[in-house]
Design a protein that fits this description.
- By secondary structure, the protein is mainly beta.
- The chain has a domain of about 70 residues: Roll (SH3 type barrels).
- Helices cover about 0% and strands about 45% of the residues.
- It has no helices and ten strands.
- The protein has a six-stranded antiparallel beta sheet, with no helix packed on it. A two-stranded antiparallel sheet has the order 4-5.
- The relative contact order is 0.20.
Length: about 110
């Protein structure tokens, strides 16, 4: 059984916003993307408590705040110029280089 990779124009380091689901409205930087499973991890978004057993590093054990993944279909790029979520497109600039462009404001991203 082959798994298809999900196509996305989002990249690690982009600021994105969750548009639907339990974490709706939360905004953060993308830390990791899993294209095979269609998941995205974002800094400070969809956090869960993780309880750790006592170990040499943590003699008392305790709880940690860990980011949980969000479905990539529920995440959109956040346009800082227009102050709202937007879709992305590709465009060829004057130098012949392919760049990402925000649909709402027309701002070049990279």
């Amino acid at each position: 059984m082959q798994t298809e990779k999900i196509k996305t124009k989002l990249k690690v380091g982009d600021v994105a916003i969750v548009v639907s689901g339990r974490a709706k409205g939360q905004k953060g930087e993308i830390l990791a993307i899993n294209k095979e499973k269609g998941l995205v991890w974002m800094k400070g978004v969809n956090q869960r408590k993780r309880f750790m057993r006592p170990s040499q590093e943590m003699p008392k054990g305790g709880e940690l705040q860990v980011e949980s993944p969000v479905a990539i279909s529920n995440v959109m790029y956040f346009d800082s110029k227009a102050k709202k979520p937007t879709r992305l497109a590709y465009k060829v600039d004057a130098n012949g280089k392919k760049v990402r462009v925000a649909k709402v404001s027309g701002k070049e991203i990279d």
